[in-house]
Amino acid sequence: DSHKHKDKHKDREHSHKEHKRDKERENSKNGNRQQDKHFRFSPCNLSGLSYTRMCCFSSLSIKVEEDNGYHLPIKHEKPLKRERDEDDRYEHKPKKLKVDNEKKVKKRKQEDSDYEEREVCISLFLLKCLLLHFKESQKRAAGEVEMVRWEEEKYTDGSKWRFLEHKGPVFPPPYEPLPDRIRFYYDGKAMKLSPAAEEVATFYAKMLDHEYTTKDIFRKNFFKDWRKEMTPEEKSKITELKKCDFTEMHEYFKAQSEARKQMTKEEKQKIKEENERILQEYGYCVMDNHRERIGNFRIEPPGLFRGRGDHPKMGKLKRRIRPEDIIINCSKDSAHPQAPPGSRWKELRHDNKVTWLVSWTENIQGSIKYIMLNPSSRIKGEKDWQKYETARRLKKSVEHIRAQYREDWRSKEMRIRQRAVALYFIDKLALRAGNEKDEGETADTVGCCSLRVEHIRLHPQMDGQDYVVELDFPGKDSIRYYNKVSVEKRVFKNLQLFLENKQAKDDLFDRLNTSILNKHLQELMDGLTAKVFRTYNASITLQQQLKELTSPDDNIPEKILSYNRANRAVAVLCNHQRAPPKTFEKSMHNLQTKIDEKKKQLSAAKKELKAAKADAKMLRDEKSKKAVEMKKKAVQRISEQLMKLEVQATDREENKQIALGTSKLNYLDPRISVAWCKKWAVPIEKIYNKTQREKFAWAIDMTDEDFEF
DNA sequence: TTGCTGACTTAGGACCCGAGGC
DNA sequence: GCCTCGGGTCCTAAGTCAGCAA
Known about the structure:
Layout: H1 2-28, H2 33-40, H3 44-47, H4 55-61, H5 97-107, H6 109-120, H7 122-141, E1 164-165, E2 184-186, E3 189-191, H8 195-206, H9 216-229, H10 232-237, E4 244-245, H11 247-261, H12 265-282, E5 284-287, E6 290-293, E7 303-304, E8 317-318, E9 327-329, E10 347-349, E11 358-361, E12 368-371, H13 378-408, H14 414-429, E13 456-462, E14 465-474, E15 480-486, H15 489-499, H16 514-524, H17 530-549, H18 556-573, H19 584-619, H20 622-654, H21 661-666, H22 670-680, H23 690-695, H24 697-702
Parallel strand pairs: 9-10
Antiparallel strand pairs: 1-5, 2-3, 2-4, 5-6, 7-8, 9-11, 11-12, 13-14, 14-15
Helix pairs in contact: 1-17, 4-7, 8-9, 13-14, 13-17, 14-17, 17-18, 18-20, 19-20
The chain binds a DNA duplex (22 and 22 nucleotides) through residues 95, 98, 268, 296, 298, 300, 305-308, 311, 354-356, 359, 362, 364-365, 367-370, 372, 380, 383-384, 387, 432-435, 437, 442-443, 445, 447, 475-479, 514-515, 518, 529-531, 576-579, 581, 583, 587, 590, 594, 659, 661-662, 665-667, 689-691.
């Protein structure tokens, strides 16, 4: 562990040096192509004109496969039709957008009234698309590739769509009572439960193998909620959980899942087809004339709440969601989804200021759950792009911001010093912001602003380093963050001061919260919030590590190993951990055995080659020459296989406790990876699987090998 | 300023299924 | 053809952050 964290620290220190270098490099290249590109691609385009390249085709045929929905400037793009909007796009100010919009409302009244017209006149709108489509096809046919822009399609009023149509959610199947032969025992005696009580009992029975059922809070919460579902008779009889025997139920479900596995190919195929049918019917929606994949179109089935860490509500009953709990969001002029027969929706809403299609309130925390679009959708992709553009803007001002917070360490105001030290942690250690949480309602986890005295230890000297801060706290999902980091003297002195006269449970930064911090960050840079630092530091680390680790002479597997190592450096930075796979030791052992065997094979093959060479030297005939060639090839093949296995082993070992997926999916600007792949001729499929390629279609589409984050 | 809520992103674990080895 | 393993996908919890009301 300590080794890991030392490395982690090293990585961080390194990347900071690299930041400077990057900055210098960037300065020296002032005005280069990248910058132009950056401007052109800046997310102002996102809500503006430039991405409106002709998705109106797909809008007509509704074929997302042919048009990924990203309206990216392409190389052969001709000058924009609406030059006057170009200027607007040079400065990206997402957060001011709303304010700006308000100010611009009057100015744009004329344009807005156009919108309104269009809104009420969808058919005209489609007609126009049709016309554009037609024109475009004509041009294409004539070999003229010109960008046709869908000028109308820009949402500067904060709306997210004009048209939204979907089929509503898919509900889980109703509860199927257990067959009579499957019995529940209380205090050793068989007892038939009412359907409601039985259903809840099955939730518990299904989890009998899980560690959850050994936890007191889980058992207590479950039992309390279960009793609420019981009939008065059941309630009076069943008073102690430990007298409940669910084993028959448990065995029944195990047998069922076993039976599912044993199904014939045909049966499995049938289920697959049915799932596909449901996906086609409910898994897509039409948003602004694109057919888009929906992320989660199934309503969460009832069950027992599985909170993470020491969650005070674990084991509580997550109740079944009924149509009457559901709010449907779609456009007025769409075919509204129908509630299941005999039921009705809670509400039918037409709010185009939000992106969700369906929502309901869950009963554990009382929070709202949503059905939204898949990451491959235009709306999510553009947001993602915008996120990375904000992080790239931070790259430009980060040195200034760092200088500022270093200055603030000396402020005479405590709140400023706290803010500055917290920001230093967020920047240097990629900590999360750390919002306040409801005590007793959620697991006790913290982030930067909510760190407490008990989470930090100061060591003026440790392991040969000065001013070491030891951080140890439960972070998001109760994942432990443990790190020892040497900080600057002034930070250290400040921390000593913050700790003075405080108890273990007191806040380290008692004059700070995320709201204060983010307000400050907003003043430093438009759109800047605490989490942008995580995105920025993750992406810049990837870029820098790739530069450092990639050797031009490496073959593809070695390059991929380098990529994974760079990815890993980021995962370590962001503390993305995973439980080591249960079969890790075993599979590692198996792999080692394979490697040993391969080595034996190799030496055998080499011997054979040697012998064949000797033969060839003696016999000097075609046959033995051929034999040498064959043996040579065999040696080559086997050593390649061996190398591959060894790389695999290294990769797997290094990956034992680290999850690469999270950073890849959420923190690393995909354009860095795409550019790297292009530069080193690594097929993008080796880095991104199909889903990831769909999510990052925008980046794959727009990125050249010389892209710089 | 504070508390609360809604919308959206980020997160790890469970589960499924197919590739590849035997 | 069977089995194992791991990647891919699904699931949904747990964060962040802005906006609003008191």
